[in-house]
């Protein structure tokens, strides 16, 4: 309700401001404000920038099309075609690439002239500016606060699934039950891109917003990577248990040790998620991680003792569970080099306003021009 109310108020304000500053400028300003406002200030700035870039390009293309073909069938078709080509040539991201033809069609309305196109460009600036201001009030929490909520929620859901798997293994599960665990684990995996994007937003937001703490944002970013690794291991455990259920043949003692290890991992992840949400600095990461490793070691000892009487494929699957559980411990205390020494990919290029930076585009264009010059002239460039 808060976000809906803020979006409606932003559109109404943009309409009012646009009409006060420009003749008939309220409609375009309200449309742009509605398209640009997002859940956070950071995202709204990006959307607003995309709207401005799209309108600037669209206005130029629209004026050229109308000048060549006059307003009508050919002008509309040529405008959309040229805008799509220009957006691709400039390597605009997915958002801005859509905005270019849309805003061009807004600009190309009947009675188009240079002054009309300029007025609509200014209206776009007004709408985007209003959206940026109002987006600050769209959510009661900062990007870091939203990251904490998402990471904690995903951690608790992962812990719940591990707990259910622990109880099921101890009681004797079947293939249908294991299939439901695997389906739930796959749903958890789908949450990872949203958490990664939110953690990246919190980190970039902290770089330019004065009240944000950069250290807290970096810590949350690392915690987001850690919970991503945890979910991957939970999904792998669910898949291993499903494959084991298909073949059958796990001994009772092995099941008991697997159940204990999964239960310990579930408890540790739950405690970590609650600590993150409550900001409890006294939490002992290392202690719980060591408990998980001890339970994995007990499982390994049981498997060694029963190696002669256990089916080879089932033995290999059970051994792989030990690795998964130990990786969960590494993610819990963030001690693994896979977390500390490997960079996580940034936001996909297709979701950025500019897919390739202007500097890179300029260098590439210069290289292409240089390759087409005669060899005698290349030395001057």
Please outline what is shown here.
This protein is mainly alpha-helical. The chain has 16 helices and no strands.
What does this structure look like?
Helix 7 packs antiparallel against helix 9. This protein has 381 residues and is mainly α. The longest helix is centred in the middle third of the chain and has 34 residues. The protein folds into 2 domains: 134 residues, no CATH class; 198 residues, Phosphate transport system protein phou homolog 2, domain 2 (Methane Monooxygenase Hydroxylase, Chain G, domain 1). The termini are far apart. The model has no long low-confidence stretch (mean pLDDT 78). The chain is elongated, with a radius of gyration of 28 Å. It contains 16 helices and no strands.
List keywords for this structure.
single chain, Methane Monooxygenase Hydroxylase, Chain G, domain 1, 79% helix, elongated
């Amino acid at each position: 309700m808060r976000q809906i109310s803020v979006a409606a108020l932003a559109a109404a304000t943009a309409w009012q401001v646009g009409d006060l500053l420009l003749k008939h400028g309220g409609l375009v300003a309200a449309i742009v404000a509605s398209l640009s406002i997002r859940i956070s200030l950071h995202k709204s700035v990006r959307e607003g920038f995309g709207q401005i870039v799209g309108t600037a390009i669209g206005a130029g293309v629209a004026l050229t099309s109308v000048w060549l073909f006059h307003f009508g069938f050919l002008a509309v078709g040529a405008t959309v075609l040229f805008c799509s080509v220009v957006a691709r040539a400039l390597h605009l991201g997915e958002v801005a690439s859509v905005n270019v033809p849309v805003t061009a069609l807004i600009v190309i309305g009947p009675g188009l002239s240079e002054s009309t196109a300029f007025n609509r460009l200014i209206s776009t600036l007004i709408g985007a500016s209003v959206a940026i201001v109002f987006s600050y009030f769209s959510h009661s929490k900062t990007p870091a606060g939203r990251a904490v909520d998402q990471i904690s929620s995903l951690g608790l859901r992962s812990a719940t699934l591990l707990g259910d798997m622990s109880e099921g293994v101890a009681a004797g599960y079947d293939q249908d039950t294991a299939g439901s665990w695997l389906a739930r684990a796959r749903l958890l995996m789908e949450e990872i891109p949203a958490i990664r994007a939110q953690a990246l937003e919190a980190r970039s937001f902290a770089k330019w917003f004065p009240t944000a703490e950069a250290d807290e944002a970096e810590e949350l970013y690392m915690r987001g990577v850690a919970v991503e690794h945890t979910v991957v291991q939970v999904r792998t455990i669910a898949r291993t248990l499903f494959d084991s259920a298909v073949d059958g043949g796990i001994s009772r003692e092995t099941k008991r040790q697997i159940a204990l290890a999964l239960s310990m991992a579930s408890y540790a992840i739950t405690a970590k998620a609650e600590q993150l949400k409550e900001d409890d600095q006294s939490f002992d990461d290392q202690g719980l991680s060591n408990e998980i490793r001890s339970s994995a070691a007990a499982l390994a000892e049981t498997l060694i003792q029963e190696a002669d009487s256990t089916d080879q494929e089932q033995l290999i699957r059970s051994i792989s569970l030990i690795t998964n559980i130990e990786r969960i411990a590494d993610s819990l205390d963030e001690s693994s080099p896979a977390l500390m020494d490997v960079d996580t990919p940034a936001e996909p290029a297709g979701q950025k306003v500019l897919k390739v930076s202007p500097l890179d585009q300029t260098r590439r264009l210069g290289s292409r021009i240089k390759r087409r010059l005669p060899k005698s002239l290349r030395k001057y460039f």
